[in-house]
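seq:
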Amino acid sequence: MTFIKKINNDLVKKIAAGEVIERPESIIKELVENSIDAKSKKIDIYIKKGGLSSIIIKDDGIGINKNEIDIAFKSHTSSKINSIKDLDSIYTLGFRGEALSSIASVSHISISTSSDGTISSNADLTDGKISKISSGARTQGTTISVNNLFHSFPARKKFLKSADKELARITKVLKKFFLAYPDIEFNYFSEKKHIYALKPKSMINRIIDVFGSQYNDKLLNVNSKKGQYIVEGYISNLDVLKKRAGDQYLFINNRPIKSKMVQNSIISSFSSLIQRGEYPFYCLNIKAAPNLYDINVHPMKKEILFKEEWKVNQIIKESIKQSIAS
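struct:
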């Protein structure tokens, strides 16, 4: 009797998609990253029922050529890398060529895109299979609509939370992009309610737009360079300490990341100024050449490994202590 057999291709795609697309926030992250990589200056996000019913991302980026739409939704296709050497020089947010294929495998997708601002290419995808591409008219950019999320993946769908909880997770993800890219205009809607209308501004003004006037005159500038690393952004003074973590934002070359090492360095930099269980606000961007870190260590590209952790630790501590002292 044979027990080992080859898994059919449709099931392989759904298993792979499940590693990238965990819930609505995953789709938001991947599509907004694509819009940013497409050099968009304005990105509109529309959500219905916490993304469980509908997600629409509209941008004014470079668009997709008609003859590239089909391949764009196939797995392991990318415009951003060609060889293994390119992994040491990645400045784009996306690069693996998995996002669009994964989303298409677990939902219904409609796309309208134009690379010249005159003629649009429009198509629908169901379970990863594309319809005939039709033409129309639209301004330059791309609009992607995602519906019926996990309709053919009930094992994942049953673990999703309520619409309100999924919306909260989406908002948390979007705040990271709002802060990382203050030069981009963002409009964020839920059930036709305009939650955020953010015009391009300086970093400090974007922080105030996102979190409110409570941060007026409460932010300390961080701007330091040492060797091959630059740290810039803002930390709060002691007037806006929180009793729980949450309003801490860290980026590497504007990419949202997690790093326990950097987080511990930031908290320890406040030394005896804060009590245990108190958390300052921070929004910090580390600038470094891509060959000094590895972002390709987690399916969602959230975590990071630094080649010279001690140097990063040192410049973080020195930068924050300098800002506090001044």
